[in-house]
Design a protein that fits this description.
Elements: H1 8-17, E1 22-30, E2 40-43, E3 48-50, H2 55-69, E4 77-81, E5 93-100, H3 103-119, E6 122-126, H4 130-139, E7 145-150, H5 153-156, E8 164-167, E9 183-186, H6 191-202, E10 209-212, H7 216-228, H8 233-236, E11 239-240, H9 253-276
Parallel strand pairs: 6-7, 6-9, 7-8, 9-10, 10-11
Antiparallel strand pairs: 1-2, 1-5, 2-3, 4-5
Helix pairs in contact: 4-9
Amino acid sequence: MAAMKFAVGDLRAFLDREYPIILIEIVEAKGSSPREAGAFMLVSPTDSHATIGGGQMEYLAIDHARAILAGMSQEMQLDIPLGPEIGQCCGGRVTLAFSRLDEAGLAAFDARIEARLAAMPEVWLFGAGHVGRALGEVLALLPVKGTVVETRASELALMSVGMRHRLAALPEALVAEAAPGAAIVILTHDHALDFLIAREALARDDLAYVGMIGSRTKRATFASHARENGLSEERINRLVLPIGGKTVPDKRPAVIAAMTAAELLVALSTYRSQGSS
């Protein structure tokens, strides 16, 4: 379970450490609200994990959960207006459900987490150099399943533990393992290898994103190479190169990683919304 980024490791540690625990979940959100239906948090007598949006609403929810734990309340649902009454100005309304994570509750909660993990989109990073490592650190905080592929064991060892690691002599062969709707980000130390991976990725019609680190010159070189190898203009034009956009002209790895992560989230969301429409 290397990835559910809010983060599974921290979640498991909380569940192992704290007892008793109340699960708070937004079951309905009307109008403007800080989080959506399905958002949840966990509350124990002395600690909490995750968030349902913060602010006074969350403080009220935590206090109510602890009242339940202390036997001072049996009310397992609250309807909260997000207005002046509680010192918030969202203007919407949320319904919160409270449940005890006893043995049966924990089993059901584990099943939900597993289902969320299974439904997360995949992001495959090909290359664990400076930008790859920076991007891996960002992705470890996001709701994606991350995999990094490298030919160099020494570089792979420096990669975020929040990513699944794959050491491969022929990285391009692993493109076929990416699930439909996955994102492929290419940032190896070898331009020829970049091109091989991109060619395999662009040959697929079911990926949400194919991006490569580089410059306009590199894009032109790749396009020429791709045409010689029979790749259509339509497929070539699907390649995002350079990754991260041009809004912030900053080549520091952390900045490229932040911009690319935002680009990935948009692409993954767009792909999913198109698939469900």
